[in-house]
């Protein structure tokens, strides 16, 4: 078959229709051609031959029996039963005086067993039907067969949920029954609705997201598997034609489907393609394998298609790609934050200048973020010589994490630097800082210790919810008295913080720190402060840098879960 590929769905459907019409006309001409110049009469099938058996004039038992067991040579319906591929019996009605059917007698049967626990019909010849099939009454089967006798209307594929107790066990099977009146008797056949192999095949198709379909181009009969019906959300009893498949096609895949169907309809070897369909508003991607069923003339008279639904895999790959894109975006954002944080750290946590040494102070500091990838957080310190000769000493902790906490930390630190230029006391500066934090719409809080060291080395300091500094003197480290300690910054607008004074001596080491150095989950903070004081005292012979390095090397101190900042100031 050679023809140009269609450029629209309607053209594709027209191509399919023309090919099927051409095929049927060719087959019809061959079928009607006489053989050897004489007409050929199509032989009747065994089941068709039942229709020409002499009908009974009455249903009173006076008609001749259609069972060959009563005829010489054994010809008749009984001889046909063996050719029926389903379980089959010939039943004779057992009626009462009024003609109502009470039961049936099994006149003949074949050897096909519809279930492994059911006997073959041929072994039940001569028995009453209710004796052989005790579940027939409760399942409604007996009434359905009696209706065939009374009305003459055939029973067509009735689903019977047949249940029977046999040898102490209850068995159940859905059976498909058909029956028709045959003279004064009834010919009944039955088979499983679905065999075990069919049920397993359905499960396998579900697990593999696969299905198959068969299109008989001559008769027009179409058969779909449960799997293919599930893929297209179609009723298995109403499968789609090839033209209906074209209607669900995405326009961009028209050429691919046209080439695929052209190959299969031409009787070529199995063809494969990947096609997208729109099913109930959802885009589904299928791998299609097509195989033609050809006759001796090489012409395809049927088409078999196997489909594998790739939609779940493609959906998973799409989600994975979106996740990777989101991870890449977050990675770039994190790298940008680190670069900003690095710049901020250099700007707001500088190395101390020689100006502090000139006024008799040795200073060291360290900052450790809780997250290894973070460069800076909400903790901060400040230690610098002011124009009036005092030394500004401060340490604080802005709540939160990430760049938001860094922004608040920078705001508070720079505000402190500006307020310190006014010559105000530590308490006044802290009071103003509190008003600044209270006015922040974010509603976050902060802690801080603000102090000044004057020329006489007296520390004048105020505390807003922060751990009090440790004073190392003569080998002992203890927290400074914090009776004047006030609430967190941002907690109480209008609160006036007090200033306390602590004289320092030569050799004293003042250690200021944030709560990340002392707070541990499930432990009282006083225990953490006592542990830090012992660690500071253990390094009394060291210079400030050595004390801080020892603290950070101590697993009990450095294993913090929060950002940690420590500032050491020794009076020389």
TrEMBL record:
InterPro entries: Bact_Sigma-Reg, PPM-type-like_dom_sf, PPM-type_phosphatase-like_dom
Protein name: Serine/threonine-protein phosphatase
Pfam families, A to Z: SpoIIE
The organism's place on the tree of life at top rank: Bacteria
Domain PPM-type phosphatase: 361-571
Coiled-coil regions listed in the entry: 313-340
Keywords in alphabetical order: Coiled coil, Hydrolase
Signal sequence, renumbered to the chain: none
């Amino acid at each position: 078959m050679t023809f140009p590929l269609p450029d629209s769905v309607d053209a594709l459907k027209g191509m399919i229709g023309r090919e099927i019409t051409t095929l049927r006309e060719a087959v019809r001409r061959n079928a009607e051609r006489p053989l050897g110049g004489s007409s050929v009469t199509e032989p009747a099938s065994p089941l068709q031959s039942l229709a020409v058996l002499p009908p009974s004039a009455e249903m009173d038992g006076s008609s001749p029996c259609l069972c060959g067991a009563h005829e010489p040579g054994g010809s008749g319906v009984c001889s046909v039963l063996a050719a029926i591929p389903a379980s089959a019996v010939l039943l004779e009605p057992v009626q009462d005086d009024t003609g109502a059917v009470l039961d049936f007698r099994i006149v003949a049967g074949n050897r096909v067993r519809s279930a492994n626990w059911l006997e073959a019909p041929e072994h039940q010849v001569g028995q009453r039907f209710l004796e052989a099939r005790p579940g027939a009454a409760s399942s409604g089967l007996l009434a359905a067969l009696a209706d065939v006798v009374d009305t003459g209307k055939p029973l067509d594929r009735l689903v019977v949920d047949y249940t029977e107790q046999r040898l102490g066990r209850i068995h159940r099977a859905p059976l498909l029954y058909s029956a028709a009146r045959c003279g004064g008797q009834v010919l009944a056949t039955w088979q499983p609705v679905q065999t075990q192999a069919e049920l397993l095949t359905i499960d396998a198709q579900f697990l593999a997201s696969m299905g198959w379909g068969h299109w008989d181009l001559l008769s027009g009969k179409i058969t779909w598997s449960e799997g293919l019906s599930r893929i297209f959300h179609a009723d298995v009893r109403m499968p789609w034609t090839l033209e209906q498949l074209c209607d669900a096609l995405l326009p961009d895949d028209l050429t691919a489907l046209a080439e695929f169907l052209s190959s299969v309809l031409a009787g070529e070897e199995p063809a494969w393609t990947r096609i997208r369909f729109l099913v109930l508003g959802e885009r589904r991607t299928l791998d299609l394998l097509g195989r033609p069923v050809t006759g001796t003339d090489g012409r395809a008279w049927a088409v078999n298609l196997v489909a594998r639904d790739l939609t779940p895999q493609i959906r998973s790959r799409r989600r994975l790609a979106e996740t990777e894109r989101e991870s890449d975006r977050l990675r770039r954002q994190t790298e940008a934050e680190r670069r900003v944080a690095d710049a901020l750290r250099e700007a707001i946590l500088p190395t101390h200048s020689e100006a502090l040494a000139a006024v008799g102070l040795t200073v060291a500091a360290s900052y450790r973020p809780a997250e290894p990838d973070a460069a800076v957080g909400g903790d901060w310190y400040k230690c610098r010589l002011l124009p009036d000769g005092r030394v500004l000493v401060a340490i604080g902790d802005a709540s939160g994490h990430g760049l938001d906490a860094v922004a608040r930390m920078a705001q508070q630190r720079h505000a402190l630097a500006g307020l310190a230029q006014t010559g105000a006391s530590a308490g006044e500066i802290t009071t103003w800082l509190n008003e600044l934090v209270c006015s922040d719409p974010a509603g976050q809080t902060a802690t801080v210790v603000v102090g000044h060291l004057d020329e006489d080395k007296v520390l004048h300091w105020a505390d807003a919810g922060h751990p009090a500094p440790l004073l190392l003197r003569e080998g002992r480290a203890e927290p400074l008295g914090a009776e004047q300690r006030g609430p967190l910054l941002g907690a109480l607008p209008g609160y006036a913080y007090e200033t306390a004074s602590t004289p320092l001596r030569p050799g004293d080491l003042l250690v200021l720190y944030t709560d990340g150095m002392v707070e541990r989950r499930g432990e009282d903070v006083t225990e953490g402060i006592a542990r830090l004081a012992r660690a500071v005292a253990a390094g009394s012979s060291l210079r400030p840098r050595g004390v801080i390095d020892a603290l950070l090397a101590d697993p009990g101190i450095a294993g913090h879960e929060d950002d940690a900042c420590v500032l050491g100031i020794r009076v020389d």
